[in-house]
Specification:
Radius of gyration of chain A: 16 Å
Number of strands of chain B: 29
Helix content of chain B: 25-40%
Structural class of chain B: alpha+beta
Strand order of the largest sheet of chain A: 2-1-5-3-4
Number of strands of chain A: 5
Shape of chain A: globular
Number of helices of chain B: 20
Order of helices and strands of chain A: EEHEEEHHHH
Largest interface: A-B, 59 and 56 residues
Oligomer: heterodimer
Strand content of chain A: 15-25%
Chain lengths: ~160, ~800
C-alpha cells in the first residue's frame, strides 16, 4: 500500500491505497467524491477532469501516488456556501447540460481555461474543449455557457 | 398557493441542473451498498470460435475472488433466454440468446464466463486468470457474403444467416417503376455506428435473500420493460423485482435494451446472497453495447422529366449482428414506413432481409430506421436533381405533400396526422442564404478554387410518439405503446407526479412540472416529478422513439384533468353550490358571481386528505391516475440546410453553416427543444463525417476505443442556427409531437449532400458515409478517372 496525502477542495485528506490506484478512483472510491466521472479508458472523454494545483488534468491519467502533497479541486469544490460557481451558473442559465455526466469535467476544463484566457473567442473555446466529449448537447450550449461565464457574447468569431 | 404565472411555452430553467452541476448525480457507479461484490465478464477475443474448455480454477485461487462461473455452470440459473420482443414475421428464424454462451462465441466480446470479487481490481485480475480454449472458426463479416451459399453459419441450427425477410407489401401503382420516363438505380450504404453515451452502462443488483426480493439499479432507458423481461430471464417473479434507472448519463439507444450483464448481476446476487455491481469499461461499451445501422440500400427512383417523383422502391440487406437483442429485427421496419419522405408520390415499395453476422448485435441507435430511410430518400432526391440538371431545392418544392391539418392516409398505408412542409423548407433556405451560397459556389468554380462550397438540403418526416398499441400488435411487437401518469396533490401544498417515462437527459422533471403547474395553477417549484423506479412509478412503457411528451405528456394531462374534476366535486360540496357554478382559474375554484367564495387546490388537497367532510362516495386524498394509448403516431417534419466547404486537395470538409427548421408541434419548453435539436444534429453530423465501426478481416473490432471511434469534440462542430414552425399535432391534447430524434434523422443527408454538391462539378456523385477526407479524396480521384 502507498500513503497519499493531498488537499482536496481545501481539506487535508490522507489514505493508504494500492499503488495501482488511479487518481480518479482514489477520489471516487477512497474519498467518496463521486462527482468526478469515468467515461473511458483511454483518456479521451475528459469526464474525469479536475484541477491539480489549479490546472486541469484528467484524473484517469495519473496514479493517486503521483499527486502526493498536491492540491486538488473537484466539482464538489466549485460551489461556495451552496451557491453555484459562476461557470456552473452559466451552464444552468444556458442549458449547457442534459444528462449531466460529462458536465463536471466540462466545468473543470472551463474553469482552468478561463484563467488561462479570460476573454476567449468562440473558436478558442471550441478548441479548448477538444479533450472533453459530450454526446447530448452538440456542444452548442456548452460553448455558449463558457462564453457567457467569460462575459463574451456567443457567436463572436476569432 | 395559487399561481397565475404560465410556464408552458417558456424557457424554464431545468430542475435537474443544480444537483448535476454540483456533482451530486445518482449515476449507478456512484452507488455503494454494504458487502457489495464486483463483477467482471470474460469475453471471447475471437469473432467466431467453438468453446472447447473453460477453466476457472486459477481465478478462484486469487484472494478476494468469491466465485467464477462458466456458461455451463449457469445453465440452470436461467428461466429463459435474453429477451427479443419484436419477432416481426411469422417465419422469423430465432435462436436462444443466453447471458453467457455455452457452445460458441459468435462475436468478439461474447461472454463466456463471469467472476465476482471483493473489489473492481480483483474482479479484473480474476477475469484475466480464467483460461478458455477456443477452436477458431471462419467468421461472417460481410452481409452480402453472409447470404451466399456455403457461407459459415452464425447459428447452425437456423440453416441460414438470412433469418428474416419483411416486406411492407407496397402501396400505390407499382407499374410506375416500369413505365416511368426517368428511372434511377442507386445504392447507398449506412455503416455501423454505436451510441457511445458518455456514461457507459452499469448495473447493481441487491438481494434480500430470505424474501427472494431484488433491486436492480441499472443505467437504462427502459426500467419497466427491463422488469418484465428480466423476470422472464432470471425467474425472479416480477413482483419481487424492483428496477431503478437513477440518473442515466445519456443513452441514444444504447440503453434501450436488456443486456446479459443486467441478468448476470441479478443471478450472481441470488447465488452469492450479496449485492453485485458491474460497470462497463469504454472498451466493453464499444464492443458489446449494441451497434446500429449496418445497411446496404438498393433504391429505384421513378420520376418524370420535369422532376415529379413518382415513387421509391427500396430493397435492403440489414446487419443484425450475432444475436437478436431486444428490438433488433424491427429496427429496419421503423424506417420502412417513411421511404417516401415528405413527398407526394404514387408508388411505394420497401423490403429488407435481416442477416446474422459475427459482429456485435445491432439495435436502435438514435432515430432507429428513420435516419437510414431519410438518408436514402434525400440522397436520391439530390441524385434526381443532378440527373435532370435541376436545382435540388426546386425538385423538393414541386414534390411536397400540400398542407393538411388532420389525418391524411399516406401511400405507405398509415395516417400522417398533419403537415405543412413548404413553409419550414422556405424558412430554412431563407435563413441559410441559399441563393447567396449558390452564387458563391458558382464564383469559386469559375475561379478554379481548390476549396469548394456545397449546399446540402434534407427535408424529412418522422414517425414518432411510439406507438398506438393496436398497430404495435398488428406489427407483432410484444407490448403496448401506452403511457401512465399519477398525480397526487399533497395536503401541505405540493404536487407529486409519478410518470412512466424514464428520461436520460431530456429534462422530463422540468417539462412535466411545467404542464402540471399550468393545469393546477401552482408554482413550478411546488411540483416534483418521480420517474424511473418501478416501486414508485409501477406503470410505464419508458422513453424511446420520441414518445415521452406525445404519450407520457398526454397521460399526465388526462391525470391532471381527473384530479381537477375531483377537486371541483369537493369544492362544490364545501361551497354548497353546483359544480357548474364554479370556475377554475389560477389554482382556485371560484363561485361565479361570488368571487369571495373560493377554494384553492391546496385547501382541497388538505380537506381530501383529512377526509372529515367528503361528499358521498368521494374517495379520500386528492389523487388520480391515467393511462393513455394514442390513436396515431405523431409526425414531426422539417428541413435542414448544411453549407460545407470541401478542400479538394486534402479531402477535408468544414461546415460553414448549419440551419435547422423543425416542426415538432406545440413546444412546452423551447430551451429544451433547442437543446434536443443541437444534440440530435451533432449526432447526425458525426454519422455523416466521423463515426464508423470497423472490423478487420478476422472480426477484430478496430474501433475499440475512443481514440479510433471518432466521437467529435466541440472543435469539429459548428454553431447551429435554429427556427421552428408550429403545426399542432391533432393526435394528443398537448399538440406536441416529439423532438429527440429529428436532428439525427435530418442531419446525415444534409451534410453528405453538401459534400457531394461541393464536388459535383468534378463529376462526383457519391462519397459514402462517413465522408472522411480519405473517402472524399478517393471520390474526386475516381470521378476524374485517375489511378492511384
Amino acid at each position: 500500500m502507498t500513503n497519499v496525502s493531498v488537499t482536496v477542495n481545501g481539506v487535508a485528506r490522507e489514505a493508504d491505497v494500492e499503488p495501482r490506484t488511479l487518481l480518479v478512483y482514489f477520489l471516487r472510491e477512497t474519498l467518496g467524491l463521486t462527482g468526478t466521472n469515468v467515461g473511458c479508458d483511454t483518456s479521451s472523454c475528459g469526464s474525469c477532469t479536475i484541477l491539480l494545483d489549479g490546472e486541469s488534468v484528467k484524473s484517469c491519467t495519473l496514479l493517486a501516488a503521483q499527486v502526493d502533497g498536491k492540491a486538488i479541486t473537484t466539482i464538489e469544490g466549485m460551489a461556495t456556501d451552496g451557491e453555484l460557481h459562476p461557470i456552473q451558473e452559466a451552464f444552468r442559465r444556458n442549458h449547457g447540460l442534459q444528462c449531466g455526466f460529462c458536465t463536471p469535467g466540462m466545468v473543470m476544463a472551463a474553469a482552468s481555461y478561463l484563467i488561462e484566457n479570460p476573454s476567449p473567442t468562440e473558436e478558442e473555446v471550441r478548441h479548448s474543449l477538444e479533450g472533453n466529449l459530450c454526446r447530448c448537447t452538440g456542444y452548442h450550449n456548452i460553448v455558449k455557457s463558457i462564453l457567457d461565464a467569460a462575459g463574451e457574447p456567443a457567436g463572436a468569431k476569432a | 398557493m395559487a399561481v397565475t404565472e404560465k410556464f408552458v411555452g417558456q424557457p424554464v430553467l431545468r430542475k435537474e441542473d443544480p444537483a448535476l452541476l454540483k456533482g451530486e448525480g445518482s449515476f449507478v457507479d456512484n452507488m455503494v451498498v454494504p458487502a457489495m461484490l464486483h463483477m467482471a465478464v470474460v469475453r471471447s477475443p475471437y469473432a467466431h470460435a467453438r468453446i472447447v474448455k473453460v477453466d476457472v480454477s486459477k481465478a478462484l485461487e486469487i484472494p478476494g475472488v468469491v466465485g467464477a462461473w462458466t456458461g455451463a455452470d449457469l445453465a440452470d440459473a436461467w428461466a429463459g433466454p435474453l429477451p427479443m420482443v419484436w419477432p416481426i414475421t411469422e417465419d422469423i428464424k430465432t435462436s436462444d440468446h443466453w447471458p453467457l454462451t455455452k457452445d460458441k462465441a459468435r462475436f468478439q466480446g461474447d461472454g463466456v464466463a463471469v467472476v465476482a470479487a471483493e473489489s473492481r481490481g480483483i474482479a479484473g485480475d480474476a477475469a484475466e486468470a480464467v483460461e478458455v480454449e477456443y477452436e477458431p472458426l471462419d467468421a461472417v463479416l460481410d452481409i452480402e457474403e453472409a447470404v451466399e451459399d456455403g457461407a459459415p453459419l452464425v447459428h447452425e441450427e437456423l440453416g441460414t444467416n438470412a433469418v428474416v425477410h419483411w416486406s411492407h407489401g407496397g402501396g400505390g401503382d407499382l407499374s410506375l417503376f416500369d413505365g416511368a420516363p426517368v428511372k434511377l438505380q442507386l445504392r447507398y450504404e449506412a455503416p455501423r455506428l454505436t451510441p457511445s453515451a458518455i456514461e457507459p452502462r452499469g448495473a447493481l443488483a441487491s438481494p434480500v435473500p430470505s424474501l427472494g426480493e431484488f433491486t436492480l439499479w441499472t443505467s437504462s432507458q427502459i426500467p419497466h420493460i427491463a422488469r418484465v423481461t428480466l423476470a422472464g430471464t432470471t425467474g425472479i417473479p416480477e413482483h419481487k423485482l424492483r428496477i431503478v434507472a437513477p440518473d442515466v448519463g445519456g443513452s441514444f439507444g444504447g440503453k434501450l435494451d436488456v443486456y446479459a450483464e443486467e441478468a448476470l448481476c441479478l443471478v450472481l446476487a441470488r447465488l452469492t446472497g450479496r449485492p453485485v455491481k458491474w460497470i462497463e469499461s469504454r472498451s466493453e461499451n464499444l464492443s458489446v453495447t449494441i451497434h446500429g445501422r449496418g445497411v446496404i440500400h438498393d433504391v429505384e427512383v421513378a420520376a418524370t422529366e420535369e422532376g415529379k417523383i413518382l415513387g421509391f422502391r427500396v430493397t435492403e440487406l440489414c446487419d443484425m449482428g450475432a444475436y437478436f437483442q431486444l428490438l433488433t429485427p424491427g429496427i429496419p421496419e421503423l424506417g420502412g414506413w417513411v421511404y417516401m419522405g415528405p413527398y407526394d408520390t404514387q408508388a411505394y415499395w420497401y423490403e429488407f432481409t435481416g442477416v446474422m453476422t459475427n459482429m456485435t448485435p445491432t439495435d436502435a441507435v438514435r432515430g432507429a430506421g428513420r435516419p437510414e430511410a431519410t438518408y436514402v430518400v434525400e440522397r436520391a432526391v439530390d441524385a434526381l436533381a443532378r440527373h435532370l440538371d435541376m436545382d435540388p431545392a426546386e425538385v423538393r418544392r414541386i414534390n411536397f405533400v400540400p398542407r393538411f391539418t388532420e389525418d391524411r392516409l399516406s401511400l405507405m398505408g398509415l395516417n400522417v396526422d398533419s403537415g405543412d412542409y413548404l413553409p419550414a423548407f422556405e424558412r430554412a433556405l431563407e435563413l441559410a442564404d441559399y441563393e447567396q451560397y449558390r452564387k458563391e459556389q458558382a464564383a469559386r468554380r469559375e475561379n478554379g478554387d481548390t476549396k469548394h462550397i456545397g449546399i446540402g438540403l434534407s427535408s424529412y418526416i418522422e414517425m414518432c410518439g411510439l406507438a398506438p398499441s393496436n398497430i404495435l400488435g398488428a406489427l407483432r411487437y410484444a407490448a403496448g405503446g401506452w403511457e401512465a401518469a399519477q398525480v397526487r396533490c399533497q395536503p401541505s401544498g405540493q404536487v407529486t407526479i409519478y410518470i412512466g417515462t424514464s428520461p436520460h437527459g431530456q429534462g422530463h422533471e422540468t417539462v412535466w412540472a411545467q404542464i402540471a403547474a399550468d393545469e393546477l395553477g401552482v408554482g413550478i417549484d411546488d411540483v416534483e416529478v418521480l420517474h424511473g423506479d418501478t416501486s414508485t412509478s409501477p406503470l410505464g412503457m419508458d422513453t424511446y422513439g420520441s414518445r415521452s411528451i406525445a404519450i407520457g405528456g398526454a397521460a399526465l394531462h388526462f391525470a391532471l384533468e381527473k384530479v381537477k374534476a375531483r377537486a371541483r366535486t369537493l369544492a362544490a360540496h364545501e361551497l354548497e353550490v353546483a359544480e357548474d357554478d364554479l370556475e377554475f382559474e389560477g389554482g382556485s375554484f371560484k363561485v361565479k358571481g361570488a368571487p369571495d367564495k373560493v377554494r384553492t387546490i391546496t385547501e382541497l388537497a388538505a380537506s381530501a386528505w383529512t377526509a372529515h367532510n367528503l361528499p358521498d362516495g368521494f374517495e379520500p386524498d386528492l389523487t388520480a391516475s391515467a393511462t393513455w394509448d394514442p390513436k396515431n403516431f405523431t409526425w414531426p417534419y422539417g428541413t435542414h440546410v448544411c453549407v460545407a466547404e470541401v478542400d479538394t486537395e486534402t479531402g477535408h470538409t468544414e461546415l460553414l453553416r448549419y440551419v435547422a427548421v423543425d416542426d415538432c408541434g406545440v413546444v412546452i419548453n423551447p430551451m429544451i427543444v433547442d437543446g434536443q435539436v443541437h444534440g440530435g444534429v451533432a449526432f447526425g453530423i458525426a454519422e455523416a463525417l466521423y463515426e464508423e465501426i470497423l472490423y478487420d478481416e478476422h472480426g477484430n473490432l478496430v474501433t475499440g476505443t475512443l481514440t479510433q471511434y471518432l466521437v467529435p469534440s466541440a472543435a469539429e462542430m459548428p454553431s447551429f442556427e435554429l427556427d421552428r414552425t408550429e403545426m399542432p399535432s391533432p393526435t394528443n391534447p398537448l399538440g406536441a409531437k416529439g423532438i429527440g430524434e429529428a436532428g439525427t434523422i435530418a442531419a446525415p443527408p444534409a451534410v453528405v449532400n453538401a459534400v457531394v454538391d461541393a464536388l459535383s462539378h468534378l463529376g462526383v456523385t457519391d462519397v459514402g458515409k462517413p465522408a472522411t477526407p480519405e473517402r472524399v479524396w478517393r471520390a474526386i480521384r475516381d470521378a476524374q478517372g485517375g489511378g492511384a
